[in-house]
Amino acid sequence: MKKRFAARAIAVAVTAGLGLALTACGSSGSGSGDVSAADYTGPKVNISFWNGWTGGAAPVLVPKLIDKFNAEHKNIVVKDVPMEWADIARKMPLAVKAGKGPDVAVGHGDDIATYAAQGLVLKADSIVKSLGYKASDFPEGLLDAGKYNGAQYAVPWSITPLGLYVNKDVLKSAGVDSIPTDKTSYLAALDKLKAAGVQGEWVDGYVFTGTFEFESLLWQYGGDLFNKDVSEATFNSDAGVQALTWMTDLIKKGYSPADVAQDGNINALIAGKTAFNWNGVWQTTNTAFDKLSWEATAVPQIGTEKGVWSSSTHWMFMNNKGQDKNKTSAAATFVKWMNDNSADWPQTGELPAQNSVRNDPKLVETYPHLKPFLDELPYAHYEPIAPGISTVEATITTAVNEAVTGKKSPKQALDDAVAKANTLLKQNKAKYSG
Predict the structure, then answer these.
(1) DSSP states along 399-411
(2) Per DSSP, what are the bridge partners of residue 105?
(3) Which residues in 85-100 are b (16+ Cβ under 10 Å) and which e?
(4) Band of pLDDT at residue 433, cut at 50, 70 and 90
(5) Counting beta carbons within 10 angstroms of the beta carbon of residue 227, is it exposed (0 to 12), middle (13 to 18) or buried (19 or more)?
(6) Do residues 414 and 225 lie in contact, with contact meaning Cβ atoms separated by under 8 Å?
(7) For the ranges 16-25, 120-129, 205-214, which has the lowest average pLDDT?
(8) Contact 328, 155 (CB under 8 A)
Protein backbone atom coordinates (compact mmCIF):
# COMPACT_ATOMS: atom_id res chain seq x y z
CA MET A 1 0.00 0.00 0.00
CA LYS A 2 2.79 2.40 0.89
CA LYS A 3 4.54 1.58 -2.36
CA ARG A 4 1.31 2.51 -4.10
CA PHE A 5 1.26 6.04 -2.64
CA ALA A 6 4.97 6.56 -3.19
CA ALA A 7 4.57 5.47 -6.79
CA ARG A 8 1.65 7.82 -7.25
CA ALA A 9 3.81 10.72 -6.08
CA ILE A 10 6.28 9.83 -8.82
CA ALA A 11 3.44 9.38 -11.28
CA VAL A 12 2.15 12.87 -10.57
CA ALA A 13 5.50 14.32 -11.53
CA VAL A 14 5.73 12.17 -14.64
CA THR A 15 2.22 12.97 -15.84
CA ALA A 16 2.62 16.67 -15.13
CA GLY A 17 5.77 16.69 -17.23
CA LEU A 18 4.25 15.07 -20.29
CA GLY A 19 2.39 18.12 -21.60
CA LEU A 20 1.22 16.19 -24.63
CA ALA A 21 -2.19 17.77 -25.19
CA LEU A 22 -3.82 15.15 -23.01
CA THR A 23 -6.18 17.55 -21.30
CA ALA A 24 -9.88 17.57 -22.05
CA CYS A 25 -9.57 20.39 -24.57
CA GLY A 26 -6.93 18.44 -26.48
CA SER A 27 -8.49 14.99 -26.29
CA SER A 28 -10.83 13.13 -28.57
CA GLY A 29 -13.56 13.06 -25.94
CA SER A 30 -14.57 10.59 -23.30
CA GLY A 31 -16.24 8.04 -25.53
CA SER A 32 -19.34 6.09 -24.67
CA GLY A 33 -19.87 2.91 -22.74
CA ASP A 34 -23.12 2.11 -24.54
CA VAL A 35 -22.47 -1.60 -24.84
CA SER A 36 -24.20 -4.63 -23.45
CA ALA A 37 -22.64 -5.37 -20.08
CA ALA A 38 -24.69 -8.41 -19.20
CA ASP A 39 -22.85 -11.73 -19.22
CA TYR A 40 -20.90 -11.51 -22.45
CA THR A 41 -22.14 -13.87 -25.20
CA GLY A 42 -20.32 -12.47 -28.22
CA PRO A 43 -17.38 -13.85 -30.19
CA LYS A 44 -14.22 -14.88 -28.38
CA VAL A 45 -12.08 -11.91 -27.35
CA ASN A 46 -8.81 -11.34 -25.57
CA ILE A 47 -8.87 -8.43 -23.15
CA SER A 48 -5.96 -6.70 -21.47
CA PHE A 49 -6.13 -5.78 -17.78
CA TRP A 50 -3.64 -3.27 -16.35
CA ASN A 51 -3.17 -3.03 -12.59
CA GLY A 52 -0.53 -1.94 -10.08
CA TRP A 53 -0.79 -5.03 -7.88
CA THR A 54 2.88 -5.96 -7.81
CA GLY A 55 3.46 -6.57 -4.09
CA GLY A 56 2.09 -8.52 -1.15
CA ALA A 57 -0.53 -11.19 -1.75
CA ALA A 58 -1.95 -9.66 -4.95
CA PRO A 59 0.57 -11.14 -7.42
CA VAL A 60 -0.49 -14.61 -6.22
CA LEU A 61 -4.21 -14.00 -5.75
CA VAL A 62 -4.96 -12.05 -8.94
CA PRO A 63 -3.62 -14.66 -11.40
CA LYS A 64 -5.63 -17.35 -9.57
CA LEU A 65 -8.81 -15.30 -9.90
CA ILE A 66 -8.14 -14.61 -13.56
CA ASP A 67 -7.42 -18.27 -14.28
CA LYS A 68 -10.72 -19.20 -12.68
CA PHE A 69 -12.57 -16.54 -14.63
CA ASN A 70 -11.01 -17.61 -17.92
CA ALA A 71 -11.91 -21.24 -17.20
CA GLU A 72 -15.54 -20.26 -16.63
CA HIS A 73 -15.78 -18.01 -19.71
CA LYS A 74 -14.75 -19.79 -22.87
CA ASN A 75 -15.32 -16.70 -25.02
CA ILE A 76 -13.17 -14.34 -22.89
CA VAL A 77 -9.45 -14.51 -22.21
CA VAL A 78 -8.19 -11.93 -19.69
CA LYS A 79 -4.50 -11.09 -19.80
CA ASP A 80 -3.13 -9.86 -16.47
CA VAL A 81 -0.66 -6.99 -16.99
CA PRO A 82 0.70 -5.92 -13.59
CA MET A 83 3.15 -3.02 -13.43
CA GLU A 84 4.11 -0.31 -10.98
CA TRP A 85 1.46 2.36 -10.45
CA ALA A 86 3.88 5.02 -11.65
CA ASP A 87 4.43 3.09 -14.88
CA ILE A 88 0.69 2.85 -15.45
CA ALA A 89 0.30 6.62 -15.07
CA ARG A 90 3.21 7.23 -17.43
CA LYS A 91 2.19 4.74 -20.12
CA MET A 92 -1.61 5.01 -20.06
CA PRO A 93 -2.18 8.34 -21.88
CA LEU A 94 -0.07 7.57 -24.94
CA ALA A 95 -1.13 3.92 -25.04
CA VAL A 96 -4.84 4.75 -25.06
CA LYS A 97 -4.42 7.47 -27.67
CA ALA A 98 -2.60 4.96 -29.86
CA GLY A 99 -5.24 2.27 -29.35
CA LYS A 100 -2.78 0.11 -27.43
CA GLY A 101 -3.97 0.62 -23.87
CA PRO A 102 -5.80 -1.90 -21.70
CA ASP A 103 -9.48 -2.72 -22.13
CA VAL A 104 -9.95 -2.45 -18.37
CA ALA A 105 -7.77 -1.03 -15.61
CA VAL A 106 -7.83 -0.25 -11.91
CA GLY A 107 -7.40 3.33 -10.77
CA HIS A 108 -7.50 5.16 -7.46
CA GLY A 109 -10.35 7.41 -6.44
CA ASP A 110 -8.33 10.57 -7.03
CA ASP A 111 -7.15 9.42 -10.47
CA ILE A 112 -10.54 8.92 -12.12
CA ALA A 113 -11.43 12.54 -12.82
CA THR A 114 -7.97 13.16 -14.28
CA TYR A 115 -8.28 10.21 -16.67
CA ALA A 116 -11.84 11.20 -17.54
CA ALA A 117 -10.88 14.81 -18.29
CA GLN A 118 -8.10 13.53 -20.56
CA GLY A 119 -10.59 11.44 -22.52
CA LEU A 120 -8.89 8.19 -21.54
CA VAL A 121 -11.90 6.49 -19.94
CA LEU A 122 -15.26 5.45 -21.38
CA LYS A 123 -18.44 6.79 -19.84
CA ALA A 124 -19.81 3.81 -17.94
CA ASP A 125 -23.38 4.84 -17.07
CA SER A 126 -24.90 2.20 -19.34
CA ILE A 127 -22.45 -0.45 -18.14
CA VAL A 128 -23.27 0.24 -14.48
CA LYS A 129 -26.98 0.09 -15.29
CA SER A 130 -26.77 -3.15 -17.26
CA LEU A 131 -24.67 -4.77 -14.53
CA GLY A 132 -27.49 -3.91 -12.15
CA TYR A 133 -25.34 -1.82 -9.85
CA LYS A 134 -26.91 0.81 -7.61
CA ALA A 135 -25.38 3.22 -5.13
CA SER A 136 -26.70 1.01 -2.33
CA ASP A 137 -24.49 -1.86 -3.52
CA PHE A 138 -21.45 -0.03 -2.15
CA PRO A 139 -20.59 2.10 0.90
CA GLU A 140 -22.37 5.43 0.92
CA GLY A 141 -20.87 7.87 -1.55
CA LEU A 142 -18.46 5.42 -3.14
CA LEU A 143 -20.24 4.92 -6.46
CA ASP A 144 -20.42 8.70 -6.82
CA ALA A 145 -16.64 8.80 -6.35
CA GLY A 146 -16.48 7.37 -9.86
CA LYS A 147 -18.41 10.29 -11.36
CA TYR A 148 -17.07 13.32 -13.17
CA ASN A 149 -19.08 16.13 -14.74
CA GLY A 150 -22.29 14.23 -14.07
CA ALA A 151 -21.23 11.02 -15.84
CA GLN A 152 -20.16 7.68 -14.35
CA TYR A 153 -16.64 6.62 -15.28
CA ALA A 154 -15.79 3.86 -12.82
CA VAL A 155 -17.06 0.97 -10.71
CA PRO A 156 -15.81 0.53 -7.11
CA TRP A 157 -13.43 -2.32 -6.32
CA SER A 158 -11.81 -1.81 -2.89
CA ILE A 159 -11.58 0.50 0.11
CA THR A 160 -8.80 1.10 2.64
CA PRO A 161 -9.83 3.03 5.79
CA LEU A 162 -7.52 4.14 8.57
CA GLY A 163 -7.69 2.51 11.99
CA LEU A 164 -5.96 2.48 15.37
CA TYR A 165 -3.41 -0.28 15.99
CA VAL A 166 -2.75 -1.13 19.62
CA ASN A 167 0.08 -3.01 21.33
CA LYS A 168 -1.92 -4.51 24.18
CA ASP A 169 1.15 -5.59 26.17
CA VAL A 170 2.40 -2.01 26.27
CA LEU A 171 -1.01 -0.81 27.46
CA LYS A 172 -1.14 -3.47 30.15
CA SER A 173 2.34 -2.65 31.41
CA ALA A 174 1.24 0.96 31.93
CA GLY A 175 -1.93 -0.02 33.74
CA VAL A 176 -4.31 0.94 30.93
CA ASP A 177 -7.22 -1.47 31.18
CA SER A 178 -9.19 -0.63 28.04
CA ILE A 179 -8.56 0.70 24.56
CA PRO A 180 -9.59 4.37 24.30
CA THR A 181 -12.40 5.41 22.00
CA ASP A 182 -12.61 9.18 22.51
CA LYS A 183 -10.53 12.25 23.41
CA THR A 184 -10.89 11.88 27.16
CA SER A 185 -9.98 8.21 27.33
CA TYR A 186 -7.20 8.65 24.76
CA LEU A 187 -5.54 11.42 26.76
CA ALA A 188 -5.97 9.44 29.97
CA ALA A 189 -4.22 6.48 28.35
CA LEU A 190 -1.42 8.70 27.06
CA ASP A 191 -0.96 10.14 30.55
CA LYS A 192 -0.64 6.69 32.10
CA LEU A 193 1.77 5.60 29.38
CA LYS A 194 3.88 8.75 29.87
CA ALA A 195 4.01 8.11 33.61
CA ALA A 196 5.30 4.63 32.82
CA GLY A 197 8.01 6.08 30.57
CA VAL A 198 6.26 5.31 27.29
CA GLN A 199 5.47 7.83 24.56
CA GLY A 200 2.10 6.44 23.58
CA GLU A 201 1.69 7.68 19.99
CA TRP A 202 4.56 8.55 17.67
CA VAL A 203 3.39 11.39 15.41
CA ASP A 204 5.01 11.84 12.01
CA GLY A 205 4.61 13.99 8.92
CA TYR A 206 4.37 11.31 6.26
CA VAL A 207 1.48 10.46 3.96
CA PHE A 208 0.48 7.01 5.17
CA THR A 209 0.22 7.97 8.82
CA GLY A 210 0.53 11.69 9.59
CA THR A 211 -1.42 13.03 6.62
CA PHE A 212 -4.23 10.54 6.95
CA GLU A 213 -4.44 11.12 10.72
CA PHE A 214 -4.66 14.88 10.11
CA GLU A 215 -7.41 14.44 7.52
CA SER A 216 -9.37 12.16 9.85
CA LEU A 217 -9.08 14.72 12.65
CA LEU A 218 -10.06 17.55 10.29
CA TRP A 219 -13.33 15.79 9.51
CA GLN A 220 -13.84 14.97 13.17
CA TYR A 221 -13.62 18.68 14.01
CA GLY A 222 -16.23 19.43 11.32
CA GLY A 223 -13.94 20.66 8.55
CA ASP A 224 -13.21 19.52 5.02
CA LEU A 225 -10.27 19.50 2.63
CA PHE A 226 -11.97 21.50 -0.13
CA ASN A 227 -15.23 23.25 -0.88
CA LYS A 228 -18.03 21.33 -2.58
CA ASP A 229 -16.88 21.76 -6.18
CA VAL A 230 -13.18 21.36 -5.26
CA SER A 231 -12.38 24.85 -6.55
CA GLU A 232 -10.93 26.07 -3.25
CA ALA A 233 -8.87 24.44 -0.51
CA THR A 234 -10.38 24.77 2.97
CA PHE A 235 -8.13 22.62 5.15
CA ASN A 236 -6.72 25.72 6.90
CA SER A 237 -10.09 26.31 8.57
CA ASP A 238 -10.43 26.48 12.35
CA ALA A 239 -11.10 22.72 12.19
CA GLY A 240 -7.86 22.18 10.31
CA VAL A 241 -5.87 24.22 12.81
CA GLN A 242 -7.46 22.30 15.68
CA ALA A 243 -6.62 18.99 14.02
CA LEU A 244 -2.98 19.81 13.33
CA THR A 245 -2.57 21.47 16.74
CA TRP A 246 -3.79 18.26 18.37
CA MET A 247 -0.99 16.41 16.61
CA THR A 248 1.75 18.94 17.42
CA ASP A 249 0.57 19.13 21.04
CA LEU A 250 1.18 15.40 21.40
CA ILE A 251 4.82 16.17 20.66
CA LYS A 252 4.99 19.30 22.81
CA LYS A 253 3.49 17.49 25.80
CA GLY A 254 5.88 14.58 25.52
CA TYR A 255 3.33 11.98 24.45
CA SER A 256 5.28 11.60 21.19
CA PRO A 257 8.95 11.99 20.32
CA ALA A 258 9.91 14.68 17.82
CA ASP A 259 11.21 14.02 14.31
CA VAL A 260 9.81 10.51 13.94
CA ALA A 261 11.26 8.83 10.85
CA GLN A 262 9.10 7.33 8.13
CA ASP A 263 7.87 3.95 9.39
CA GLY A 264 9.23 4.87 12.81
CA ASN A 265 5.84 4.69 14.49
CA ILE A 266 4.78 1.29 13.18
CA ASN A 267 8.24 -0.10 13.91
CA ALA A 268 8.05 1.33 17.44
CA LEU A 269 4.66 -0.33 17.94
CA ILE A 270 6.05 -3.69 16.88
CA ALA A 271 9.12 -3.22 19.07
CA GLY A 272 6.98 -2.44 22.12
CA LYS A 273 8.17 1.18 22.37
CA THR A 274 4.74 2.72 21.86
CA ALA A 275 1.11 1.70 22.29
CA PHE A 276 -0.86 3.37 19.47
CA ASN A 277 -0.43 3.82 15.72
CA TRP A 278 -2.94 5.41 13.32
CA ASN A 279 -2.50 3.35 10.17
CA GLY A 280 -4.41 1.76 7.32
CA VAL A 281 -6.24 -1.54 7.07
CA TRP A 282 -3.30 -2.79 4.98
CA GLN A 283 -1.35 -3.31 8.22
CA THR A 284 -3.68 -6.19 9.15
CA THR A 285 -1.53 -8.30 6.80
CA ASN A 286 1.73 -7.30 8.52
CA THR A 287 3.33 -10.61 9.56
CA ALA A 288 5.50 -8.80 12.13
CA PHE A 289 2.33 -8.51 14.22
CA ASP A 290 2.27 -12.28 14.65
CA LYS A 291 4.59 -12.04 17.65
CA LEU A 292 2.50 -9.33 19.34
CA SER A 293 -0.60 -9.17 21.47
CA TRP A 294 -2.33 -6.57 19.32
CA GLU A 295 -5.69 -5.28 18.28
CA ALA A 296 -7.02 -3.01 15.55
CA THR A 297 -9.88 -0.68 16.45
CA ALA A 298 -11.68 2.30 15.00
CA VAL A 299 -9.74 5.55 15.28
CA PRO A 300 -10.74 7.38 18.47
CA GLN A 301 -13.17 10.27 18.16
CA ILE A 302 -11.04 13.24 19.15
CA GLY A 303 -13.27 15.92 17.64
CA THR A 304 -16.99 16.61 17.79
CA GLU A 305 -18.04 13.98 15.24
CA LYS A 306 -16.93 10.67 13.82
CA GLY A 307 -14.70 10.78 10.77
CA VAL A 308 -11.96 8.69 9.19
CA TRP A 309 -9.86 8.79 6.05
CA SER A 310 -10.23 6.08 3.44
CA SER A 311 -8.84 5.54 -0.01
CA SER A 312 -10.56 3.56 -2.75
CA THR A 313 -9.82 1.81 -6.03
CA HIS A 314 -12.12 1.51 -9.02
CA TRP A 315 -12.50 -0.32 -12.32
CA MET A 316 -12.20 1.81 -15.45
CA PHE A 317 -13.08 0.91 -19.04
CA MET A 318 -10.50 2.50 -21.28
CA ASN A 319 -11.31 4.65 -24.31
CA ASN A 320 -8.69 3.28 -26.67
CA LYS A 321 -8.61 4.62 -30.20
CA GLY A 322 -10.81 2.19 -32.15
CA GLN A 323 -11.91 0.42 -28.97
CA ASP A 324 -13.78 -2.83 -29.71
CA LYS A 325 -17.22 -2.75 -28.05
CA ASN A 326 -17.12 -6.53 -27.68
CA LYS A 327 -13.96 -6.19 -25.60
CA THR A 328 -15.53 -3.51 -23.44
CA SER A 329 -18.59 -5.71 -22.93
CA ALA A 330 -16.37 -8.67 -22.03
CA ALA A 331 -14.43 -6.42 -19.64
CA ALA A 332 -17.70 -5.50 -17.92
CA THR A 333 -18.46 -9.18 -17.43
CA PHE A 334 -14.99 -9.59 -15.93
CA VAL A 335 -15.50 -6.67 -13.54
CA LYS A 336 -18.83 -8.02 -12.31
CA TRP A 337 -17.32 -11.48 -11.77
CA MET A 338 -14.32 -10.06 -9.91
CA ASN A 339 -16.50 -8.02 -7.57
CA ASP A 340 -18.73 -11.04 -6.91
CA ASN A 341 -15.63 -13.13 -6.13
CA SER A 342 -13.69 -10.62 -4.00
CA ALA A 343 -14.11 -12.33 -0.61
CA ASP A 344 -10.39 -13.12 -0.37
CA TRP A 345 -9.24 -9.62 -1.33
CA PRO A 346 -8.52 -8.81 2.37
CA GLN A 347 -5.41 -10.97 1.93
CA THR A 348 -3.99 -7.92 0.15
CA GLY A 349 -4.83 -5.56 3.01
CA GLU A 350 -7.88 -3.99 1.38
CA LEU A 351 -11.63 -4.37 1.88
CA PRO A 352 -13.94 -5.46 -0.94
CA ALA A 353 -16.16 -2.56 -1.98
CA GLN A 354 -19.22 -4.61 -2.83
CA ASN A 355 -21.60 -4.71 0.14
CA SER A 356 -22.90 -8.21 -0.52
CA VAL A 357 -19.37 -9.60 -0.24
CA ARG A 358 -18.20 -7.40 2.59
CA ASN A 359 -21.32 -7.93 4.72
CA ASP A 360 -21.18 -11.71 4.48
CA PRO A 361 -20.50 -13.01 8.03
CA LYS A 362 -17.88 -15.34 6.59
CA LEU A 363 -15.64 -12.34 5.86
CA VAL A 364 -15.14 -11.42 9.51
CA GLU A 365 -15.00 -15.08 10.51
CA THR A 366 -12.08 -15.50 8.12
CA TYR A 367 -10.49 -12.10 8.76
CA PRO A 368 -11.52 -11.08 12.31
CA HIS A 369 -9.25 -8.03 12.45
CA LEU A 370 -11.34 -6.36 9.74
CA LYS A 371 -14.40 -5.73 11.89
CA PRO A 372 -13.45 -2.27 13.22
CA PHE A 373 -12.61 -1.10 9.71
CA LEU A 374 -15.99 -2.31 8.46
CA ASP A 375 -17.68 -0.49 11.33
CA GLU A 376 -16.00 2.78 10.29
CA LEU A 377 -17.37 2.84 6.75
CA PRO A 378 -20.58 4.77 7.53
CA TYR A 379 -18.46 7.81 8.39
CA ALA A 380 -15.48 7.28 6.07
CA HIS A 381 -14.38 10.06 3.71
CA TYR A 382 -12.96 9.23 0.28
CA GLU A 383 -10.71 11.05 -2.16
CA PRO A 384 -11.83 14.41 -3.57
CA ILE A 385 -13.02 14.29 -7.18
CA ALA A 386 -11.26 16.73 -9.51
CA PRO A 387 -8.77 16.45 -12.38
CA GLY A 388 -5.17 16.73 -11.25
CA ILE A 389 -6.12 16.61 -7.58
CA SER A 390 -3.15 14.41 -6.60
CA THR A 391 -0.73 17.30 -7.08
CA VAL A 392 -2.95 19.48 -4.89
CA GLU A 393 -3.24 16.86 -2.16
CA ALA A 394 0.56 16.81 -1.85
CA THR A 395 0.43 20.27 -0.29
CA ILE A 396 -1.42 18.79 2.71
CA THR A 397 1.46 16.44 3.48
CA THR A 398 3.88 19.37 3.23
CA ALA A 399 1.84 21.28 5.82
CA VAL A 400 1.63 18.34 8.20
CA ASN A 401 5.35 17.70 7.91
CA GLU A 402 6.29 21.33 8.47
CA ALA A 403 4.10 21.53 11.58
CA VAL A 404 5.07 18.29 13.29
CA THR A 405 8.78 18.96 12.70
CA GLY A 406 8.40 22.43 14.22
CA LYS A 407 9.36 24.38 11.11
CA LYS A 408 6.06 26.28 11.15
CA SER A 409 3.08 26.71 13.44
CA PRO A 410 0.03 24.63 12.47
CA LYS A 411 -1.81 27.73 11.24
CA GLN A 412 1.13 29.06 9.21
CA ALA A 413 1.81 25.65 7.67
CA LEU A 414 -1.83 25.22 6.67
CA ASP A 415 -2.21 28.79 5.38
CA ASP A 416 0.89 28.44 3.22
CA ALA A 417 -0.26 25.06 1.91
CA VAL A 418 -3.74 26.34 1.08
CA ALA A 419 -2.27 29.24 -0.88
CA LYS A 420 -0.22 26.78 -2.91
CA ALA A 421 -3.18 24.41 -3.26
CA ASN A 422 -5.44 27.17 -4.58
CA THR A 423 -2.83 28.14 -7.17
CA LEU A 424 -2.66 24.52 -8.32
CA LEU A 425 -6.47 24.25 -8.42
CA LYS A 426 -6.65 27.29 -10.72
CA GLN A 427 -3.93 25.84 -12.92
CA ASN A 428 -5.78 22.51 -13.08
CA LYS A 429 -9.03 24.23 -14.01
CA ALA A 430 -7.34 25.96 -16.94
CA LYS A 431 -5.46 22.83 -17.95
CA TYR A 432 -8.41 20.43 -17.92
CA SER A 433 -11.26 22.69 -19.07
CA GLY A 434 -9.60 23.85 -22.27
Answers:
(1) HHHHHHTTSS-HH
(2) 50, 316
(3) bbbbbbbbbebbbeee
(4) confident
(5) exposed
(6) no
(7) 16-25
(8) no
